[in-house]
Amino acid sequence: MQTSVLPDFFIPSPTVSAFEIGPLTIRFYALCILAGIVIGAWLAARRLRARGGTTAQALDIIMWAVPFGIIGGRLYHVITDNQLYFGPGKDLWGALRIWEGGLGIWGAVALGLVGAAIGAKRTGVRLATFADAAAPGLLLAQGLGRWGNWFNNELYGEPTDLPWKLQIHNMNSVTGQAVTAADGTPEILGYFQPTFLYESLWCLAAATFLLMFLDRRYRPGAGSVFALYIVAYTAGRFAFELMRSDYANTIMGLRINTWVSGLLFLTGFGLFLALRSRPRSAVMTENTGSGGTVEAEDDGRSPEQHREVPNGRNDRHRTQQ
Known about the structure:
Layout: E1 18-21, E2 24-27, H1 28-50, H2 55-80, H3 105-123, H4 127-151, E3 166-169, E4 171-172, E5 177-178, E6 188-192, H5 195-218, H6 224-243, E7 250-251, E8 254-255, H7 256-275, E9 281-282, E10 296-297, H8 303-307
Antiparallel strand pairs: 1-2, 3-6, 4-5, 7-8, 9-10
Helix pairs in contact: 1-2, 1-4, 2-3, 3-4, 4-5, 4-6, 5-6, 6-7
């Protein structure tokens, strides 16, 4: 009687992280980031419309936030992993090759908020209103962006024998191809915890929780949804950073991103406690005597109901200070 052998389950990783179209090299990492930006922008615009804003306002703000965010993300990566680009024998120009991977979310969010603040001021929308509208989309964008790490065969945890272990190849970042062994097969470095997948699923779950439950049911005050985004993301990121086995700079034995996650979690929680009782803001644009706009607090009615008030006025509008 033969003993059946169970198949060895694992999550495969791509052996190709780029492809060429004429003289152009297209990186899947960049495509994942781009897909995340598109989905996040769509959701942010939809949620801003629900708060009385317009798609044009959302896109105007996003056009400022995205390039600032990309620059900020790259700066954070280069600063915290400076040994990869500076020093004897290092390729200084590699610091500019963002398509090869390397974006720090903390720098992206920080400088992205600066860009969003500029765009919000130009469009007459409060930054807190836009940040609340964009928070779930940010989580979706980060979750999609993590699949770029899957294509690059990076961001994994300790070796494991779990059925969902991740197969990792030895990748050549320049060619975008897996290094092949003497027999022509791709070199396999081993099987590891798929921390990229854990983080992607966490972002999806957190976005659903913020969008489908908390924000709709409890309608927290202006800025508090974004504060919850900080809390939710950093709680997961703290755990995933503890699981990762790829090289990173450390402080007192912990990865830099672990420290940053913990500090931002406490900051976000404090912000939420301070902001949750504030009035929930909404963008209601209408002509004022000076040709400007008024941003009003959300009184629970839809933008259409506001516009149906006789004589084009709404006595319940109150300009936010």
